[in-house]
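Memo to structure team: turn this sequence into structure tokens by end of day. - J.P.
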Amino acid sequence: MSEIVVRRLRFEFPVDTDLEVLPNDHRGSRSSIAFSLTMPYLEPYLIRTMRGALPRVKDRELAEDMRRFSAQESHHYRNHAKFNEQIRSKLHPEIAAKIQRIEAALEADYRRFSSERSLRFNLAYAEGFEAMTGALALSMLETGGDEVAPGYRELVEWHLAEEIEHRTVAFGAYQALVGSYLYRVWRGVWAQLHYLKYIHRFYACLMAESGRGPFLPYLPPSARSAWRGYLKTFAPDYDPAAVPVSPRLRALLDKYSALEGAGSD
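Reply from structure team:
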């Protein structure tokens, strides 16, 4: 029986939502928004990868986890897409158009990966991404993360809690169907750099909107504190199921399960 719960939540974002989603951290706000801008393209790609792998998975529990992983990711990216719409409406038309061109390039990359690259490649990409963001989510849960503006806070909190809840799935699928340690590390790092390149491109556009610079890569404090957990993902005996999780996780998951029951769908 899978322990992953699919919470069908829909968040509403106020029309006065602005770009300062991390109060008192201008650069961190733009970096966080850049992350959100990738979600409507990255997460459908992860879903396609899991669906492509499912017919080859013989372990019924893993297969069910993969289905629930995909369902969770489906709700994540739809909510991020709504938030992104609000953000785009606040941007100068020239900046918004540039961001849309980057979004189109990112989607084209992921479509090409799904149609032209091997399942081995796509599973390693998915695992590399999940290992990186899983380490970030675990760090934010442990430290309390950055201060986040109301409205966006709930989206981030729910998303990161479910990232931790399904942290074993991409790794489990990779291990079941590929299993190579060296390929996991090599291709996982490639995937992380590919993804972070797009984060930086979005971030540079958002910083240009505010007229500030330089446009060097930026990590919010919560991301900087995740390095120790991130480096552990490269160990030969790495297993996300064995990573300690803060007791706060259960309370957060219960909180958002209750919101679904209260009719947030």
